[in-house]
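Hey,
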Amino acid sequence: MKPTEHTEVPTQWVGPIAFKALNGRSFNATDVKTNVPLATYETTLFPSVGRGAKVSRQIGGLTATLVADGMTRSLLIETPSVSESMRVAEYTHTHIDRLQAEVVSQHSNHTVLKKVDPTYVGNLLYLRFYFSTGKAAGHNMTTFAVDAIAESLLRQFPTIEYVSLSGNYCTDKKVSAVNRILGRGKHVIVDAIIPREIVESTLKTTPEKIVQLHVKKNMIGSLVAGSLMSANAHYANMLLGFYMATGQDAANIVEGSQGITHAEVKDGDLYFSVNLPNVIMGTLGHGKEAFQARFEAMDITGDHGAEKLALIAGGIVFAGELSLLAALTNQHELVKSHTHYERN
């Protein structure tokens, strides 16, 4: 067996991106500016995000808000009947505090069970457990917790049978309606009003052109393509670059890229926002030790570090999404950019 090898990915620091406000669940900060690392082979992403970051500085900053925060894992069990499935589901719902105290807390000091969402298929019971996981993204923490909960339920209900620790109702690294509706990871919204003169001078377009393109490309185009509760130009590009540069599980861009961009003209200016319901990131856990210097360079420390990291990720997505849509309103601009940065 060969020793572990390392694959090099081009990485650049871009920015700074400016935030008027970072509104977390456990912290708030104002007037924040930070450079951000991106790791990608699509090197046009560096100047594109850089242009969006320039806009963020010109307007005095973006507003990034953390709407919700919780990691999920779905247990699948088989029961003798639908009524028994409902009885088990009701037990988990009414005994959340007990499961936390007697089961979850025995395996982790940082994992907290918040709620349980059940669904049924015949006598199959899918239990979607939702946890807060502190500074960690929470993949392993939730898996360990649900494994222990499963053992407890099997003792409590001798007639039920274990099927799988993950029943795909989580939903992990797959696009699904349940993640868009109930969330998985950190739900981040970033928005701003961009004055017309900045749209014209920096983005080389107009608010009307961006809105029209957004409607026809992101909204209608995604509809005819059969996209699932998602309407954006390229969230995955920015998320992958930031995930790779900060030691995240890059496969989570699958659900992470499921988001909705919104744009409209307000009093002649451009209102623009990105909505990311499934940002899965952490500053603690497997692989993160090698990236602590980058976290510190972005001033991401303390107990709210994972929240701040996700809010910054939303800002990066905002910058890249805005820049690409602006470029696409001008025929040949995208092709010329790729030729300039990649063919030379």
